[in-house]
Write a structure and sequence with these properties.
Strand 4 and strand 5 form a beta hairpin. It is built from 13 helices and six strands. It is elongated and about 70 Å long. The longest helix is centred in the C-terminal third of the chain and has 17 residues. By secondary structure, it is an alpha/beta fold. The relative contact order is 0.12.
């Protein structure tokens, strides 16, 4: 298979999973290369996502790595052989790669768990909210650049509003609901949108109120995207220089535990809706 100039996050993830299987088997990259009849550079390209891998080669590697997890191997094969091009491809070369990676992650997700402390979760944001947010954080952007990002964010909502929505749970701190990102009127519209979505069967919204004492989770903001198997989950976090995709098992378990803790400190869904409704009326 040909080399890619810039592998997607999903392609790079496949490569990391193959490397993890090799390392678990105690094999060196040169030994794995020999199994496929390629050189060490080509093996490195496969494990970094720069080069693809066929189903036949992937299954050969898995067999030689003594991987007996058939579900995992099948899931990796699905990742390797997926040639679908989603709606996000129209933004390739127009928006940064991370935007496309996030949309692709949404598309393949089996569930979403979000924690939002300062801003309303992206999948809930209205156009006015998103436009104000992108414009403020990127004051050097011309209007058309901001509009592209808003348009992309609105299209990402298909994962919870489309024909086959995924289960979505989010915990939002009251601070995110009170901050008037786009002014009083737009904030009221934003709160009503959250209320509307919270009534859908596949969406659960919980709020951590200011009255909750001893909440030290201000840094717990996350997007936890479910994979086809738990070990293929991904956590997305904002990093100082961009978006960070977290996928090691130890880190995933840490964020699963953190989400359960934050969710346990939040109000139940009914009380959360009551609080959001009260905030909307106070505006």
């Amino acid at each position: 298979m040909g080399r890619r100039q810039e592998p997607t996050a999903r392609q790079a993830r496949l490569g990391r999973e193959l490397r993890r299987l090799r390392e678990a088997a105690g094999l060196k990259a040169t030994e794995a290369a020999g199994l496929l009849g390629v050189n060490s550079v080509q093996m490195s390209h496969i494990e970094s996502g720069i080069s693809g891998v066929s189903e036949q080669r992937l299954r050969r590697l898995a067999a030689n790595y003594a991987c007996t997890d058939a579900e995992l191997v099948d899931a990796l094969v699905a990742m390797a052989t997926d040639r679908s091009r989603g709606w996000w491809e129209e933004y390739r070369g127009v928006l940064p790669a991370a935007y496309l990676d996030l949309a692709e992650l949404d598309h393949h997700a089996t569930f979403r768990h979000d924690v939002a402390i300062i801003h309303v979760p992206g999948l809930f944001q209205t156009k006015d909210y998103a436009r104000s947010l992108f414009g403020y954080m990127n004051p050097e952007f011309p209007e058309d650049e901001v509009a592209l990002r808003v348009e992309h964010r609105m299209k990402r909502r298909v994962v919870i509003e489309g024909a086959t929505p995924i289960p979505y749970e989010t915990v939002i701190h009251e601070a995110a609901l009170r901050i008037r990102v786009a002014g009083r009127a737009a904030t009221q519209v934003q709160l009503h949108r959250i209320l509307e979505l919270s009534e859908l069967e596949h969406i659960t919204v919980q709020v951590i109120p200011f009255t909750h004492e001893d909440f030290a989770g201000a840094g717990s903001t996350m997007v936890h995207s479910g994979g086809s198997l738990p070990q293929l989950d991904t956590v997305v976090r904002d990093a100082p220089h961009g978006t960070a995709f977290v996928d090691s098992e130890a880190q995933l378990e840490h964020f699963r535990t953190l989400f359960r803790r934050v969710r346990g400190e939040a109000l139940p869904p009914k009380q959360s809706r009551d609080l959001i409704n009260q905030l909307a009326k106070e505006l």
